[in-house]
């Protein structure tokens, strides 16, 4: 097969499997997080879902939760996490750049429940924002841990719609996010209703496991009531 024909076949296959968009805007919203807006029409998205962006060729993709989608543009909020291809892409991408990505996917989405509990850190907060917004006036509780106060982003306007005893912020102040005992302790301190609701727990894998263990073992929640999404853990690749 001639090289030019092979390239044409490869591009046609990529066009069937991936979406092509253009970066419309990039700005820094916290010291470690960038807002990246990408043109994309005709997609179907449920709050909490993600896309896989080709950060360094089609074989090197990184997963990012969608903060918002208006039918024409995707808004991503990308945390500069480590020094890998995803962080390099977020730091160097500019308006006008082409972006190749897979369509919205994932089952980490809200479901009917007496109330909803969101627990996680910076990597989880981007998924939580649209999930909370979509719940409207449903009862919501939250525990979110970030490094410092400057790393907070508005999470579905939680601050505006929840009394102080339903929303807890924790600050690590330089301590590791992995195996975060302070996040688990904050969940232990929550005054939740007597019956289980639905928990959405995301972020570092070992911390996610510890929070789930507390809800299941100590509070007696059914495992099916705790939805988990381990985005990362030190020394491992392939988590999302």
UniProtKB/TrEMBL annotation:
Domain of life: Bacteria
Cross-referenced CDD domains: siderophore_interacting
Domain annotation FAD-binding FR-type: ranges: 16-111
InterPro entries (UniProt xref): FAD-bd_FR_type, FNR_nucleotide-bd, Riboflavin_synthase-like_b-brl, SIP_FAD-bd, SIP_fam, SIP_rossman_dom
Classification via PANTHER family: FERRIC REDUCTASE, NADPH-DEPENDENT (PTHR30157), NADPH-DEPENDENT FERRIC-CHELATE REDUCTASE (PTHR30157:SF0)
Protein known as: FAD-binding FR-type domain-containing protein
